[in-house]
Amino acid sequence: MFRLRAALVAVLAVLLGSTGCVVTSSSSGSGALVDSAPAPQSAPAGDGDAPAEEQIARAVFDRVNAEREARGLEPVAWNDALATVARDWSAEMADTGEFVHQDIREVLQGDELAGFESVGENIFSATGPVPAGTIHAGWMRSDGHRANVLNPGWDRLGVGVFCAADGSVWATQEFGRTAGADRPAVASSTPPVEPITRPADDGPTC
């Protein structure tokens, strides 16, 4: 049986006294609050002609919004910059074999995420090919990961998947809140497990 692992970023708070289970805001650096937030973008088509990694990323993205819709939450829009950060980190984990989070504070303060004030990260790996549904369901059945998926404060998402030569699968979700987002504050509460709208272990695979 393949071994599955999932993890999420805990607290990376810049605001004094802030604690919780999600990444929170940056107050300095190029990625700090700016006047113009990234506009919503179209998610990759993810059709049968697309690379497997892109198909999986799109399937995971769609499942996130299905869960949010079912619980009365606003959807998240795709963001290419977040997706690039996510895929680069999935590839980095595959290359090093280390299942760890990146320094989200450093990423948030970089030029690539200008216009974002908060970022949250979920990561996943499996020793063999698994479908998109397995990745999604694994995150939904874990309290901290589900808190990111269903956090009302996020308004953007990028998903990055890497299919390694040894058959292992590595996936990263980068959730973001744009500067001036018309959303509730990023929450620290944990939503209940049920109902999971898309629990099936189906969808595209490597």
Textual characterization of the structure:
By secondary structure, the chain is an alpha+beta fold. The chain has a domain at 52-178: 3-Layer(aba) Sandwich (Pathogenesis-related Protein p14a), CATH 3.40.33.10. The protein has helices at 52-70, 80-96, 104-108, 132-140, 143-149; strands spanning 4-8, 77-78, 116-126, 156-163, 169-178. It has a five-stranded mixed sheet with strand order 1-3-5-4-2. Helix 1 packs parallel to helix 4. The two termini are 16 Å apart.
Q: How big is the Rg?
A: 16 Å
Percent of residues in helices comes to 25-40%
Can you give the mean pLDDT?
Answer: 85
The first-level CATH class name of the domain at 52-178? Alpha Beta
> How would you sum up the global shape?
globular
Report the CATH superfamily of the domain at 52-178. Answer: CAP
Oligomer: single chain
Structural class: alpha+beta
Q: Termini distance? A: 16 Å
* Count of alpha/pi helices: 5
Enumerate the spans where pLDDT stays under 50 for 5 or more consecutive residues.
Answer: 8-24, 27-33
Task: Please sum up the structure shown.
Helix content is 28%, strand content 17%.
Key phrases:
globular; 206 residues; alpha+beta; five-stranded mixed β-sheet; Pathogenesis-related Protein p14a; 5 helices; Serine protease; 5 strands
